[in-house]
Amino acid sequence: MRIRRTNPLFAPAIAAVAALSLTACQDGTDTKTEGASTPVSSAVTPQPGNTGAAATGTTTDSGTSTVTDTGSGTGSHAKPAGGTSGKQTSVTAPQGKGKDTDPNAPENRVLCNGSNTKVTAKPVPRPLNHMLITVTNTGSKVCDLTYHPVLRFEEMQWAPQAAEETRPQAVTTLSPGESGYAGVLLAAADGSGEGGMTAKKLTVGFQGRTPNSDGGAVAKPSLPAGGVYYDSSLQVTYWQQDMADALEW
Question: pTM for the complete prediction?
Fold first, then answer.
């Protein structure tokens, strides 16, 4: 058998090639070592409204971005200046005059009656056979005169009806010191009334918020010394704000 021998002249060259191949295998490449990838830098676009120093950042090969804020900015996304916590301070506007302090508001008014008014009853020369009832608010609150007075002469068991044509469009309201009025037709001018008599005592009753309800204390105004004459024609008006309206019927 023939044995092939290696020429001694090529031995160094073969050793060098073997060493180069061994180095390439250790680096994980076929013939040479590749350098490491260089990171690619990209600027981060500032958010709209930021007018201060823009934030910058870098993006690596792995897709991870790092953002660095280089200034507080002054736009809509800016941090509060001076290291404040960013809490808003609320300002309370002055409160106006509410219903609870308005004396004219319906819920703040009281009923007019014998406890907070002064009541007078006086016959008048015109119209004939008429009497005027005057109610003056002596209290400290605004009061309402509701519907019409409930009159009782002496011990009479009935009360005169109110003339519907005298019903006002609004409740008669009296501020402290103001007066309201009601007219009374005592007897028919033509003598057609029946059961006429003279009374020396009068009781004036007040109604509540609903018709014919109790409005509180009654009043007993004085009558002329000779009394007043009345008959079956006895009739009253609704409470009026003006004296003229109480006598024009």
Answer: 0.59
